[in-house]
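Re-run with default settings, no changes from the original entry. Doing this only to confirm the output is reproducible before filing.
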Amino acid sequence: MKRDETPDVKPVKGGEQIPEKKSKKVIALPVKIFLIGFMGSGKTHWGKIWAKNESLTFYDLDGRIKKAFKMSITEIFEKKGEEKFRELERYHLRKFESKKNFLLACGGGTPCFSDNMDWMKSQGKVFYLKAEPELLLQQVMHETEKRPVIKKVNPSELLFFIQKKLEEREPYYSQADVILNVDELNENSLSLFLTPTK
């Protein structure tokens, strides 16, 4: 959490005081927040809001991979295969070891490969945005072309696919430090779990 820092002041003639710097937001300790969850759970949406509220830098892991490879995630899956994508994912995730005071929205499968979950937990706090399959279906049903995991799934089978995939991933997701229900989220949901500055 953050607080307003009291500005430093210096005395001047006449007993007046002039602030040397403006009040700013500060964070108690170097903060590393990793958001995980299934596609459509709102990691990017809420991540941007929370990062702004907490004066953290927001990053999107898939976005960094796309920028570095100059391809969409779907193109990487199709041209290089999922195994290559997971290698890239691991590589770019580990780059955050040297960063601090950030919030990173991870891909849906990020925690399930390459010991990524253990690594994230060793670096900072992992928040799982948990949503029911029906809600996830509503969020992704019109974006299948953009999401390689579901691109070739028959629309009528999409809910079943999401249910099965969630079941597979839940053992990883449930290892998160904090589990937040998507239907209860608001702009202050993250603040409750950050250490206040003393």
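Confidence is low (pLDDT under 50) at residues 1-27. DSSP finds seven helices and nine strands in the chain.
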